[in-house]
Amino acid sequence: LISRSDALALDADDGLRVFRERFLIDQGLVYLDGNSLGPLGVGVDERLRSVVRDEWGSRLIRGWDEGWLSLPVSVGDRLGSLVGAAPGQVVVADSTTVCFYKLLCAALDLRPDRRVIVTDRNNFPTDRYVVEGVAAARGLEVVWLDGVGVDEVREAMAGSETAVLTLSHVSYRTAAIADMAEINRVAHAAGALALWDVSHSAGVLPVALDSSGTDLAVGCTYKYLNGGPGAPAFMYARHELLPSVRQPIWGWLGRRDPFAMEFGYEPAEGVTALLSGTPPVLSLAAVDEGVRVVAEAGVEAVRAKSVALGEFTIALADEQLSELGFAVASPRDPARRGSHVAVAHADAKALCASLADRAVITDFRTPNLIRLGLSPLVTRFVDVWDGVSALRELAPMGD
Ligand SMILES: Cc1ncc(COP(=O)(O)O)c(C=O)c1O
């Protein structure tokens, strides 16, 4: 049996353990929800205080020329290095939902003669709703996949009129990883563009936006990038597409020479054209610090610990939970699994609430999943052990 001391021994051996000290964490809490909202970094706390007092408080309007205006692109470049994007292709702005809307519309405008958007029935709700809304507004058809395997995708696209294929790289439900490079090839062979949501992979597993041939992508910064609640999302558009990408929200900060205040919209050069309005400076500063910490640890090292935590979680779940009506709902192959482990149980909702009452924070996803989020810079093996043990204690005994 795996004991608590085994977990402590793994923690003692963990090359990333010092990173936990870089976060402000309530030590009485077992936090297994960094896949939803990452913790507060010490550097983020300090940077926010400094931006508020020294920049906003003292520089006031001068701050725009002293660096604020370039934050969407400079933070985008730094973030890009974590998702395999060379500089000049990523900006940080708006919510994931709005970024997704902008890039979906831009992609459709690049395939004006095609009438179909392909996506997955289990894609994250906001992506599905935006797809539905855009399809309704433009009179397009949506083809819903029942899974994101390469063969399913190929079948749905065969001889198709598909303009855009859009999927999540890592499933928010099961953490299953889609084969980005192969699916991009399938999309391109069918003449379609591929738009990815990398919210559940950015900062926690290697993402190869450039080398996988991805056309467009969006992602959150408040999960594994620890940018804070409501932090702006990011958009990626591959270099070759940038000159022809036209996003639909033509605001002044996406315009060439915005302070000329001229009549008529002309997009700015490059990735700046994806912007619309005033950047959220405080949140961008937080994202900048969150990204720096992940970059310092290195995505490969973060991924190695994420895999080790995932394997440990599944071994514990098999040992302690399987006889109590739980089933592991995430892929068992670590190469196919992102950084959370979902366990299914008929009473998942009530169990998740009871865990929270015992200061074990996980989350529930309807109808029957508890997600155990593994955030490698802060999650310890002992947190997983304590979380799974609490779940075992709370679960009703089987028949
Ligand atoms: C895959 C995915 N996309 C988008 C979002 C959220 O979008 P927004 O930041 O606009 O609320 C989430 C949030 O959990 C998500 O998991």
Describe the structure.
The protein is α/β, with parallel strands linked by helices and 399 residues long. The protein contains eleven helices and 15 strands. A seven-stranded mixed β-sheet has the order 4-10-9-8-7-5-6, with helices on both faces. Strands 11-12-15-14 form a four-stranded antiparallel β-sheet, with helices on one face. A two-stranded antiparallel ribbon has the order 1-3. Helix 3 runs parallel beside helix 8. It is globular, with a radius of gyration of 22 Å. The two termini are 23 Å apart. The model has no long low-confidence stretch (mean pLDDT 97). The chain binds pyridoxal-5'-phosphate. Residues 95-97, 124, 126-127, 168, 172, 197, 199-200, 220, 233 line the site of pyridoxal-5'-phosphate. Pyridoxal-5'-phosphate is lined by residues 95-97, 124, 126-127, 168, 172, 197, 199-200, 220, 233.
